[in-house]
Specification:
Helices cover about 30% and strands about 30% of the residues. The chain has nine helices and eight strands. Strands 1, 2, 3, 4, 5, 6, 7 and 8 form an eight-stranded mixed beta sheet that branches. The protein is elongated.
């Protein structure tokens, strides 16, 4: 039976596979890179990321490009009131030990959305595909809720289907107008203070009073061909230093003459 086992199972006679191989710690071959956010945000140092060092044909930077990281807007802007917003950034280029990111998407935390949805009111949602002036195709989703009119006694605030359709039309128009007339970096600056949501709320006041109007989600569907000069515009001068950049970039410029 022993001979039969050896005949059947070729590995039995040869001993343990890979016994002489010394296990190398995978982390000893990895490098840390800093992740840099665009200058629309106050805190430019998002965090760090790991990548295996270049060897042979395998170039480390190629494995970093295209990575997507998610950061909370409260951390990026030092403002705890914005903690319900999540920003996705995509690494577009590597400069030294810095990964330069560009805006990739935006979302709201689940607990925030859950806290807004209540009984006795209508939830109105609208999604629209827009293209910015610099060729980014984005899908934007908006969410809004009806609210009681001043001096209203009735418990419920349900909007009629015709009113909901009108509100959705307004949402689509405003989101399209706001997004298709600017480039991506200016659009991100509109997302941060939720100015589009406020605009929709005011425009729909005459149809049905709304509250909690937010751009709920933004997703990049299609990006134009990568342009390094555009990325540098978005990053300003934060590429030189790996130390956290000050809240305003101008601060660094003022300090330089005194050092010299």
């Amino acid at each position: 039976s022993r001979a039969m086992a050896v005949g059947k199972n070729k590995r039995l006679s040869k001993g343990k596979k890979g016994k002489g191989k010394k296990q190398v710690d995978a982390f000893s071959r990895k490098d840390w890179y800093d992740i840099k956010a665009p200058n629309a945000f106050q805190i430019r140092n998002v965090g760090k990321t790991l990548v295996t060092r270049s060897s042979g044909m395998r170039v480390a930077t190629e494995f970093l490009k295209g990575r997507v990281v998610e950061a909370n807007l409260a951390d990026l802007n030092k403002d705890e009131d914005q903690n319900y917003r999540k920003i996705k950034l995509q690494m577009m280029d590597i400069s030294g030990k810095n990964c330069l990111c560009n805006f990739y998407g935006m979302d709201m935390t689940t607990d925030k959305i859950r806290s807004l949805v209540k009984k006795w009111q209508t939830t109105i949602e609208c999604t629209v595909d827009v293209t910015t002036t610099d060729g980014y195709k984005l899908r934007m989703s908006c969410i809004a809720f009806t609210k009681k009119r001043a001096n209203q006694l009735r418990k419920t605030t349900y909007a009629q289907t015709a009113q909901i359709k009108q509100i959705r039309k307004k949402m689509t128009d405003i989101m399209t107008k706001e997004a298709s007339t600017v480039d991506l970096k200016d659009l991100v600056r509109k997302f941060i203070p939720n100015s589009i949501g406020t605009q929709i709320e005011q425009a729909c006041q005459c149809i049905y009073p709304l509250k909690d109007v937010y751009i709920r989600k933004v997703k990049t569907l299609k990006a134009p061909k990568f342009d390094i000069t555009k990325l540098m515009e978005v990053h300003g001068n934060a590429t030189e230093t790996s130390a956290p950049a000050p809240a305003a970039d101008e601060g660094t410029k003022v300090d330089r003459p005194t050092d010299a």
